[in-house]
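Dear support,

I submitted the protein below through the web form. The confirmation email said the job was done, but the results page showed an empty box. After a refresh the structure appeared. I'm attaching both so you can tell me whether what I see now is the final result or a partial one.
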Amino acid sequence: MRIAKEFTFDSAHYLKDYHGKCERLHGHTYRMRVTIKGGVQKNGLLMDFVDIKKIVNEKVVNKFDHANINDILEYSTAENMCIWAWEQLESVLPLFEIRIWETPNSFAIYDGK
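What the results page shows now:
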């Protein structure tokens, strides 16, 4: 079984070692989907969405929201944001994958591999 919760946050970043418009500081409204996996418990839930929200907000969203991502990651790409979010969450959630959309139709997917 897999379940997912989506989050949005507003952040700024610039792309280091990149030549083009995105090398300058700019912002996005990011969308992130955290998908977890596991068995359904006796109560019918894999995990309570309220608990997922609390954990992900505390460990990832509150750090990225209204921040310059370059203060957290040297290379502030959607790919590296996925990896960083995975590292923050892997010890507390049974992760399946993390997706981060930088724009409505451009996103990265990470599954821990």
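Response: this is the final, complete result; the empty box was a page-load delay. The domain at 2-110 is CATH 3.30.479.10 (Tetrahydropterin Synthase; Chain A).
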